[in-house]
Amino acid sequence: KQEVTQIPAALSVPEGENLVLNCSFTDSAIYNLQWFRQDPGKGLTSLLLIQSSQREQTSGRLNASLDKSSGRSTLYIAASQPGDSATYLCAPAGANNLFFGTGTRLTVIP
Amino acid sequence: DVKVTQSSRYLVKRTGEKVFLECVQDMDHENMFWYRQDPGLGLRLIYFSYDVKMKEKGDIPEGYSVSREKKERFSLILESASTNQTSMYLCASSLIQSLNTEAFFGQGTRLTVV
Q: Is A55 exposed, middle or buried (0-12, 13-18, 19+ CB in 10 A)?
């Protein structure tokens, strides 16, 4: 069964800093990997989707990389803002499921 | 934009009640999913459906059933609610079965069983 680990569990940074969130997974046979953000008490908002054949995907200040063979993905956030404060979840996709870890809770301090 | 809408943001039900959670998507997606989210456990798949009237059990189906009579609607049913089913429930949809497309989530339903 796919196991997903996100490190660190919580991160606090000053506004303007660049940061990296890490995701590792145990089964490299994935279709794709998606990054989500979740605000407290809310649903998940899709940020980026990386296909299994891709190495990288960018959207605005976000850049996600995927190394399928080593079971790792990173989410890079440039010039962080207080509005980026949320929990970030990575989700590698199997044939019929997305697998989730417990996420990284990010706080950006003004 | 894809929209996945869950019928309630908050629900409070009594132990033993039959509970219906409704989810509707507006983008003609084939796949729909129900997850529950608990602190320290992440999101866990309860059931999914890849077509009308088709359903598959996920990792934690016990105590739940589902219904998909129309493509756009996927219902989660708690046959007899128990306090250990107090949780955040999240519905999701995606376009095709292989999940090579983006999954979209609803806003979540916070269910409390008392």
A: exposed
The whole-number pLDDT of residue A101 equals 87
Average pLDDT over residues B39-68: 93
Q: Which residues of B touch A97 (CB under 8 A)?
A: 33, 45, 48, 58, 99
What is the distance in angstroms between the Cα of A78 and the nearest Cα belonging to chain B? Answer: 23
Provide long-range contacts, Cβ within 8 A and 24+ apart, for B48-52: B48/A96, B48/A97, B49/B74, B50/A96, B50/B97
pLDDT digits (tens, 9 = 90+) for B30-40: 899 999 999 88
In the predicted model, what is the mean pLDDT of chain A? Answer: 94
Tell me the nearest-neighbour CA distance from B38 into chain A, angstroms: 9
What backbone phi and psi angles, to 5 degrees, belong to A84? -80, -10
Picking from B25, B27, B43, B49 by the largest number of A CB atoms within 10 A of its own CB, the best residue to mutate is B43
Q: Would you say residue B58 has pLDDT above 60? A: yes
Residue with tokens 């339903």: B109
